[in-house]
Amino acid sequence: MRQEIITQLRRHLKAVLSRRPGRALWLWGEPGVGKTFTAQTLLRETSCKSLSLHATLPDRALVLSLPRPPRRPAWSEAQRQRLMHSQYVPLATLVDTLAATMSALAPFVLHLEDLHEASPERLELVQKLAQVVLRLRGVGLVVTSRSEPLEPFKGYRLEPLSQAESDQLLRAEAAHELPQEGLEWVFSRAKGNPLFTLEFWRYLSRQGYFWSDGRHWHWRKPSDDFVPVSVEALIGRVLSDLVEAPDLQAALEARAILPSRLHDDAFEALWSRVADVDSQTLSHIQRLLNQKGVLQQGRFAHPLIQEVLQREIPAWRKQAYARRALVALAGQPEEAACFIEMAHLEPEEALGLLEAAAQSAEARGNRPGQARWLAEAVKYSSSLEQAGRAFEAAQLLKAMNPTRAIQMAEIAASATLPNPEAVLLLAELLAVQGHIREAEASLRRLPRSEDGALRWWETQIYVLGQGGRWQQAIELWNQQPGYQARARPRIRLEVGSCLAFLNKLDEAQHILEELPSLHSLPPAIQLAVLNLQGQIQTYRGCHAQALKSEERFIALAKSMGSAQAAISGLINHASTHSALGLRSQAKACLQEARILSLQSGETMRHAVVQLRLADMLADEGEFEQAEALLLEAQGLLYQHHQVQWQAESHLKLARLYLTWQPPHGPILALKHAQSALRLARASRDVKFLASSLAYLSRAHSQAGNPAAALEVAQECLALCTGEGIKQADAYFAYGLALEANGRLAEALEAIRAASAQQHERKLAERFALEADRISANLEDARKRYEWFVSQGLLGLARLASRYFPVLAGPSQARHESPLQSGLCLKVLGPVELEQGGQPITYRGKKRLELLCYLLEARIAGRAEVSGLELADALYPAAEEVRARATLKQQVHLIRMTLGPEAIQSTPSGYALGAIRSDAEEFLQRGDARLWRGPYLEHLCEGWHGGVREALTQALYAEAGALLESEPKEASRLAQILLAMEPYDTGFLQLSLQAVRRCGSPKAATRLYKEAQERFLEVGEVLPGLEAFLQTAPPA
């Protein structure tokens, strides 16, 4: 059974190595059963990066212990810097930082040991991290614990060793054969517990029951009353021999009552004071305990040693140690508060210390810490004070730990005379968590009075509004006109927002006008007022007025220290500036919002800001920067379950590639448009669906799929016409699809209609440019080009000059196309070089890697690659100066061999010169015969993931198109795809279909059996062949 579990764990770790979906594994069992040993052994066997950490490490140490990825996302790097400077980082941000770092290190496994020792806050962090890990690829989270598994972990209970496994363990420890009688005696006592087995071995060999004559080991059976009967007793006997000296006993016991996570330099002084032993003596004791195997690097060698010691210390000595700790930590109330219970403080003393701890946490900006200490203070409070403190703790906890907040609100609401605000808070917390019946039941605790009905009414409106049920909230508001004048400002503003979302702007404005003057309201309510005011002005198209409201909102948010509100305000401010054509001001707002989001760790808002900023950069022609921001934002969004934002990130990437048009652009635009459409259908958002269909049709047109482009465009047009939305976008996509199908007159009519319907001039001019291209209208294109340049829309200006090269001017003469060169770099299989169609014998792996790296950069649309980037990629272990020198030498050698034009020098680095490639030819012409084997076979997997992905997807499409007409060729191509991505079920389906069409059912069965075995190696089970072929291929 134990070996079966280890086999399954091994498969899961292999799945991580193969970059399959993430794994969250929970290995549990009794003390000493070998959980940590097993986990670490498996990690050593798995050839990917991994790290084992104690589960109780402080947040700062937990994050900073992770290796720094070579390509570090800016957001996670900013959070590392905050932790390095000991700034408080919220739990959600810690989870996102850990997940982003682990994803950048993939394939990577993080092992957290002894999770049963962790605080509830750490358990919550680990659970949330596991939820994110399951959505990532090539990432594993392994925990070891004595406790049963939590969701969403896959749990494995580690069983004791068998007799054979126990014997093997002891023989390995002795490095020799051992008497079988002795082995059986140990197994009968240890019961297969690895720790107990090893402790027995050490104890019995020290006592001479196992003894060696230099050639063989012998066995002498001990008397039954001499050997301890449990591992705890065995440890206790070993420790009893060490605590004869008072100083040593005090040092051991003091270390046992101090938290196991502490072992830094500052801890030495604390340990010395708690033990009442001077530092020199303590250093001597530490060395002795390390030699005896009791301590390892300042921590107990095994948690059981600490547990046995803690259990054996009399209560009066524990109290004495704890009180010394309180004195030593007098200036650190948060650390001192951990010893309150052990020190048996009087309630008044405990309360004072907990309040000081809460104030300390508040001063550091650690609101969860503040809430934790206030919650702890509740149980030491008198009955009169308890409800008030519980209510205060619940208010702090509601945004960060709703479950704990409900517990505190329950205490506050259960007072003999319940505070109506506490009951209201409890109802709101329950409702937001989806516990509607419990929320309504809690409201019945309110006094049977008009005030109670008012509060119930307010809570219902708030919950409906927050849940997006705006019409129901308004109906409830209108049912009680008598309550409206008495409703709190927060509820009125909730109603106003609902009205604005329903486009009832006059009614929303009326709500605002009936509120008290702005300066008489609390700051948080002032923010809500200004936000609603700006919302109404924006919906009415009064952008100049909206700017002023937004400026006041941002200034107030900053004065309150609310980064979250300031970021939201800056995003809105940028949108309003853009609507007025004030691009530089809009960009400045987004850049400021990005800095604030990095500093505050607001993950979702940071991702949203990056999406907006990337749009602006793409308009300005900064395509590479835009791509980097979009991909980083998308990575963060996929750590969360935000379907609509994920869809938007795919739409923006599709738009980027359609405008940028690098060689691999059409394939990636198609892929992202398809992903956006899948998410839009899942979310049932009509606007996202319309946009996704429009972009998908345009991507099909650009990728050379005219029939698919027209079909999707017609679906988009029907949807937009029926819903009265995005009709300009639909006509534009329809026009391009008509052009792809050779219907030029109809295409021009549709595109011009789209331009006429588009209210935003930037998009109207963009649409009209396509009409200029189709009709070869240079003069109108020139006017648009000049307008694009005047507005800073250099990305669109570049597109215009691509359509009409004369617009770029004579100073920007086009270089000779590399496709005209006689040199060819072949990467669709083993890497080869050809000159005039004849192979060149070319040695030097690093030089080939350099050429291939520069080729990928060119395919990805990059004008150059910096020398530093190339040095880091090709010589990661070398010092920068040496790596740069070696790089220059390699460039020189390539130029000497292939000619001076092979690699071009650029302002910041290098670019591939007059060398064409089979990869670019394939992307341009779609000739699948160019593929001789897996991409970059025998060299590497590539560096720019988008290039490999585009080539793979394009090959998949070509192979699928050949399935009916040339099944043998389709089968050959499918085998290449499987060699590149052996766990892709779509490629496997294609391969099976092709083999069957070749008339080889036995070959298909054999191929599928091999695939089943391959998938089983990573812990995944495929269904039967027929069932597998009937499943839809992955999206």
Automatic annotation (TrEMBL):
Domain Orc1-like AAA ATPase: start-end pairs: 1-132
Molecular function per GO: DNA binding
GO BP terms: regulation of DNA-templated transcription
UniProt-listed SUPFAM superfamilies: P-loop containing nucleoside triphosphate hydrolases (SSF52540), TPR-like (SSF48452)
InterPro entries found in the cross-reference section: AAA_16, AfsR-DnrI-RedD_regulator, P-loop_NTPase, TPR-like_helical_dom_sf, TPR_rpt, WH-like_DNA-bd_sf
Protein name, per record: AAA ATPase domain protein
Species of origin: Calidithermus roseus
